[in-house]
């Protein structure tokens, strides 16, 4: 009947309304969560910004304090030397005036025609003539600037505040913001690789190490993976490789890299799942999917590895 049909439609509509209400509540809940996340992010940003500003403000104050001390020393040196020079200048100017006055008086005396007056004048000026006629003896040298101290001061400033920015600021930022300290996973190490007690260093050995059986262990390639993986964000770490006197491989791979057998699917840089930097004396190459790129650079002692997971960047 029409009544039954209407009731069925109303029930269906009520059910749809409830579904819409539930969706609305879910959306509202998601919005609240996102707003909270936004507020938390803003709060974290403010707190981090305050910390960063505080650090740089302290650094600025330190630099300004050092600058004041250096400039005060330079000013004191300038005053010391300048005062000595001005004192000497004043003495020499007075000496010059005495000589000019004596020269004028003697010139006038020579013009005197009366013998008695001339002799009397000469007698009265005898001591004065003797004084101004003495050979000029230069005054003691004025104080000199302490050049040794100034040179050391300039070298110190150069080392502290001029040479420092010439270091790698990008590396400093990477270490500070994204720096990781990975450890090596003994369950993946090839049997002839020996790990340190801290699992931070690895070296090769002619003898096999008695590692326990592990499905994750490489059984042909001399390789070992780190315990920590990268699954999001950005990460940076450094590896001390030993320079160009040794053969070494440093790489990044997916966790699904094969471990068993001697095929290319297990070797770093010889498949799509891995990237590798390979070095031997006189040679440095980058490898990926068995493609080799020779690098026109000396083998480094330290290799920095940067991974931006979302951007798909390895450098």
TrEMBL record:
GO terms for molecular function: ligase activity; zinc ion binding. It comes from the Eukaryota. The keyword Glycoprotein does not apply. Residues 82-116 form a coiled coil. Keywords: Coiled coil, Ligase, Metal-binding, Zinc, Zinc-finger. Residues 162-315 form the B30.2/SPRY domain. The keyword Ribosomal protein does not apply. GO terms for cellular component: cytoplasm. InterPro entries: B30.2/SPRY, B30.2/SPRY_sf, Butyrophylin_SPRY, ConA-like_dom_sf, E3_ubiq-ligase_TRIM/RNF, PRY, SPRY_dom, TRIM8/14/16/25/29/45/65_CC. PANTHER family: B-BOX DOMAIN CONTAINING, E3 UBIQUITIN-PROTEIN LIGASE TRIM65. This is E3 ubiquitin/ISG15 ligase TRIM25. The lineage of its organism: Eukaryota, Metazoa, Chordata, Craniata, Vertebrata.
């Amino acid at each position: 009947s029409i009544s039954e049909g209407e009731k069925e439609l109303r029930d269906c509509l009520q059910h749809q309304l409830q579904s819409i209400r539930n969706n609305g509540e879910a959306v509202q809940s998601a919005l609240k969560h996102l707003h909270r996340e936004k507020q938390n992010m803003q709060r974290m940003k403010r707190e981090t910004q305050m910390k960063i500003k505080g650090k740089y403000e302290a650094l600025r104050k330190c630099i300004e304090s050092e600058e004041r001390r250096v400039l005060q020393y330079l000013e004191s040196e300038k005053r010391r030397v300048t005062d000595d020079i001005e004192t000497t200048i004043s003495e020499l100017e007075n000496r010059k005036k005495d000589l000019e006055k004596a020269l004028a008086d003697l010139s006038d005396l020579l013009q005197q025609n009366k013998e008695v007056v001339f002799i009397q004048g000469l007698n009265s000026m005898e001591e004065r003539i003797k004084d101004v006629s003495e050979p000029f003896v230069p005054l003691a040298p004025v104080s000199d600037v302490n050049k040794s101290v100034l040179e050391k001061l300039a070298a110190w400033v150069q080392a502290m505040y001029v040479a420092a920015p010439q270091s790698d600021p990008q590396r400093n930022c990477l270490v500070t913001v994204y720096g990781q300290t990975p450890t090596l996973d003994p369950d993946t190490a090839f049997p002839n690789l020996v790990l340190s007690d801290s699992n931070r260093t690895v070296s090769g050995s002619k003898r096999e190490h008695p590692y326990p059986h592990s499905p994750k262990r490489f059984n042909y390639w001399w390789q070992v993976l780190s315990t920590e993986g990268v699954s999001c964000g950005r990460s940076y770490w450094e590896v001390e490789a030993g320079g160009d006197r040794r053969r070494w491989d440093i790489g990044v791979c997916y966790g699904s890299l094969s471990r068993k057998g001697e095929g290319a699917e297990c070797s770093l840089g010889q498949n799509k799942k891995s990237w590798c930097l390979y070095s031997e004396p006189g040679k440095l190459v980058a490898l990926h999917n068995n493609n080799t790129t020779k690098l026109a650079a000396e083998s480094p002692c330290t290799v920095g590895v940067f991974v931006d997971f979302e951007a798909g960047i390895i450098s």
